[in-house]
Amino acid sequence: MKTLIFKTASTYLLPLLVLFSVFILLRGHYLPGGGFVGGLIASIAFVIHSFANGLEQTKNLIKFHPGFLMPVGLCIALISGAAPLFIEQSFMTGLWFENPIPVIGMVGSALFFDAGVYLVVIGVTLTIIFTISETL
Amino acid sequence: MNNPYIVLPVIFQLLTSVLLMFFWYRVNAQRLITIICSIISVGIATWLFKEVYQNGILTMQAGEWQAPFGITFVADLFSTTMVLLTAISGMAVGIFSTGSIRNARLKFGYFPILNFLLMGLHGAFLTGDIFNLYVWFEIIIIASFVLITIGGEKAQIEGAIKYVTMNLLASAIFLTAIAILYGLAGSLNMADLSIQVAEIENRGLVNVVAILFLVGFGIKSAIFPLYFWLPASYHTPPPAISAVFGGLLTKVGVYALLRIFTLIFIPDEFLGNLLIVLACMTILSGGLGAILQVNMRKIFSYLIVCHIGFMLAGLGIYTELAIMGAIFYLIHDIIVKTNLFLASGLIFKLKGTLNIEKLGGLYKKYPKFSLLIAIPLFSLAGIPPLSGFWAKVFLIEGGYKENEWMLIGFIILGSFLTLWVIAKLWSEVFWKDAVDLPKKINVKYFHELKPFKRWAMVIPIILLAGTSLYIGLAAEHIIVLSKQIAAELINPTAYLDAVLGIKSQTP
Prior knowledge:
The complex is a heterodimer. Chain A is an all-alpha fold. Chain A has helices spanning 4-27, 35-53, 55-62, 69-82, 109-135. Chain A is built from five helices and no strands. In chain A, helix 2 (35-53) crosses helix 3. By secondary structure, chain B is mostly helical. Chain B has one domain (4-505). Chain B is 76% helix and 2% strand. Chain B has helices at 8-22, 27-55, 77-100, 103-106, 110-126, 130-149, 154-185, 190-199, 203-221, 229-233, 239-263, 269-292, 296-317, 320-351, 362-365, 367-381, 387-401, 405-431, 451-473, 475-490, 493-500; strands spanning 58-61, 72-75. The chains are: A mainly alpha, B mainly alpha.
C-alpha cells in the first residue's frame, strides 16, 4: 500500500498514536484503560508505519528486535509485583507514593505493573506481526 | 498462619524464565542458568516443606484482599509435598535437557518455556482459589503446547494435534463447571466453597457439577474413557519433554481431583462407586494397552494410564487408609515416571532406537547403566522393598477393610500386568542377544557426546533413582507424611481455619 496519502498520514499517526497509548496507560486503574490496551494501541502505531513504509523502515526506526521488550516488561511487572515482599507484605499488594505527581497522578506499584504489561504486549504483538509479514 | 513468602517457588520460576529470556540465543548461558536455578528452586521448595511440616498450614492473601474475596494461596502439607516433588523432577529434567536437547530447539526458547511450565505447576499446587487453579492450568497447557511442538517434526505435530484438542476440550469443561459452581454457591475460594456447597439443597445439580469436574480433570489425568490422547502424543516429543509430561502433567490432574473431591464435593455412594468402576477400567485398559506395544515410550505411556487408576481407586474407596495409599502412590509415581522417560532417552542415545524388539544386549554391554535403570523399572513394578510396593499394600489394605473385592482384584491384576510388561521389557532390552542395528545419521550417539553432556544425562537418572530408593527403603518417613496428608484431606477443618480464620468457627 504505497500511496502518498497513507504514507504522509502514517508519519503523523505514529507519534500521535504512541502518545495516545501512553495516555491510555496512565488513565488505567480506576478508569478504562491500562497496560494491555495501551500496548495494543502502541503496536498498532508501528504496524501502520510498517504497512505504509515497508517493514525494513519500521525495523530501522525501532533499532532493536521487539522481542527484547518481552523479558524487559516481564521483569518490570515481576519486580513491581514482588516489591511488597521486601517489606513483609503479600505478593501484588499495591504500594503507593504519598503525594501525587503532576500530570501523571497517583503513582504506585500498580502503574509499574501496567507499564510492564504495556511493554510485553508491544513486544509480543510486534514479534508476531513482523514474523508473519516476513514470511509472506 | 499468614506468611507472604509461600509464593516464592512460583516467583522464582518466573524469575528464572525471565532471566533465561535475556539469553535467548546464548544456549550455553541458558544451560548454566538452568542448572543453578533448578538447584536453588529445590532449595526453596525444601524450605517451604520444612516450614509447613513444622508450623502447620500457611496462607497468603494476594494483594492483602481477605479470604473469600481475594485470591488465596494455601501451603498445606499436600501442596508443599507436590511442590517439592515438582522441584525435584524439574531439576532432573532441567539438567537432563542441558545434555540431551539440541541447540536448534534451545534457540526457540526451550528453557524459558520449561520454567513457565514449572511455574504453572507450582502455582496450581499452591493456589486455594478454584478460578485461579483454572488459570494455572491454562499456563501449564499453553507452555506444554509449545514444548510438544517445539522442533516441528511431523510425528510431533501429529501428537500435538490430539494433545491440544483434548486439553482445550478439558479446559472448556472445567471452566463450565466453575461457572455453574459459582452460580450455585457464589464463591470461588475453595475453603469457602467447602462450606457453601455442603449447604446447597439441590444435590442433583451439585452432583452434575461434580461430574463435570470429574470429566475435566479426568481428561487431563487420563482416566478410563478419556485417556486415548495420552499414549498417542507422549512418545512424540524429545525424551526430556515426555519426562516432564509423564511425571507431572497427569499428576496435576490427579492432585486437583484429590483436592476437589475431598474439600468441595464429598463423594456420595453413587460418585464413590463411579470412581471405583472408572479406576478398575483405567487399570485394565492401561495395563492391557501396555502389553501390546513395542515402542518403549508407548509402553510407559500406557503404564501411566494404568497407574492413574491406582490413585483414583484410593479416592474411590474414600477412607483415610486408602487415600494415604493414593498419596504414597502419587509421591512414588512422580519420581519413577519422570525417571523412566529420562532413562528411555538415555537408551535412545545409546542404541538409536526405542523398539524393544530391535533392542537387546544392553546388560552385557552397559552393566552399570542397566543396574541404574533397573531401579525405576522394578520400583514401578512394585517389587518389595522398592517404592511401588508400599503404596499398593496400603491401597489393598484400604480396599480390604471396605470389602471392595472387585477393586482389590483389579489392583492385583494391574500390578501383575505391570510386572509382566516390565519383565518382558527387561528380557527384551537387557538380556536378549544384541542385534546389529544400522547406524542412523541424524542421531548423535552417547559415545559421540562431550563428557559434560554425558554426565548431564546420567546424573539426573542417578538422582531420581536415589530418591525412589529413599522412598522405598525409608518408607516409614513417607508413610508418616502421607498419613498426615490423608488425615488433613479427610478432615479439612485445619485447612478451613487457616484460610478463613474465625469465620469457620461460627457455623
